[in-house]
């Protein structure tokens, strides 16, 4: 966290949205920096450090997906994307590019504040866990190697690049092999709560993980489905 007041970069080209979202954030004690297009967002991110980026998808000059891609290439700052379309393509693409969460417009201010606080809490927990980690902790299973302290994954001796949330999903499952997690349980473990979130988000992350880790995603060896309930990591 930056000092005592988390700093948020709010990226939206509509001034009315900037005003609507900035006010409650400042009331909560957050410092809010505004950007109105994709290029300005990247410029602000180069000039300052942020604890969170709230990023609209539809932006002038560079759209939110491109901004997310460029931010993620050089930073692990949490990113929440705002999308006006409740379509899987938008949410899947945002998550694939490394966004930590997304909110579909229209949304309530209660939901908005809840999602902001949840992502910041998770970021704090990760920072605390990293600082407390006494040393490398590695799990190896049939060609899959997970180094939890370095957040590094290899499959058959080849490094695999996972998004922030993909690694979190994998970590929760892999730390308790054989334990079955429902979608809701995974949402709560990763985001701190399951409020306002579509459980299908977990299915998207599992699908991406299987595509990256499994020899045959249709017949997974590591990330297994318990039909009607959820997922578990192979116990062997």
Walkthrough of the structure:
It is a single chain. The protein is α/β, with parallel strands linked by helices and 236 residues long. It has two domains: 7-131, 3-Layer(aba) Sandwich (Rossmann fold), CATH 3.40.50; 135-233, Winged helix-like DNA-binding domain superfamily/Winged helix DNA-binding domain (Arc Repressor Mutant, subunit A), CATH 1.10.10. It contains eight helices and twelve strands. It has helices at 15-27, 38-47, 64-74, 88-96, 109-132, 164-174, 183-191, 200-213, and strands at 7-11, 31-35, 52-56, 79-83, 101-104, 138-141, 144-147, 152-155, 158-160, 181-182, 223-226, 230-233. A five-stranded parallel sheet has the order 2-1-3-4-5, with helices on both faces. A four-stranded antiparallel sheet has the order 6-7-8-9, with no helix packed on it. A three-stranded antiparallel sheet has the order 10-12-11. Strand 3, helix 3 (64-74) and strand 4 (79-83) form a beta-alpha-beta unit. The termini are far apart.
Brief summary:
With 236 residues, the protein is α/β, with parallel strands linked by helices.
Question: Can you lay out the helices and strands and say which pair or pack?
Answer:
Layout: E1 7-11, H1 15-27, E2 31-35, H2 38-47, E3 52-56, H3 64-74, E4 79-83, H4 88-96, E5 101-104, H5 109-132, E6 138-141, E7 144-147, E8 152-155, E9 158-160, H6 164-174, E10 181-182, H7 183-191, H8 200-213, E11 223-226, E12 230-233
Parallel strand pairs: 1-2, 1-3, 3-4, 4-5
Antiparallel strand pairs: 6-7, 7-8, 8-9, 10-12, 11-12
Helix pairs in contact: 2-3, 4-8, 6-8
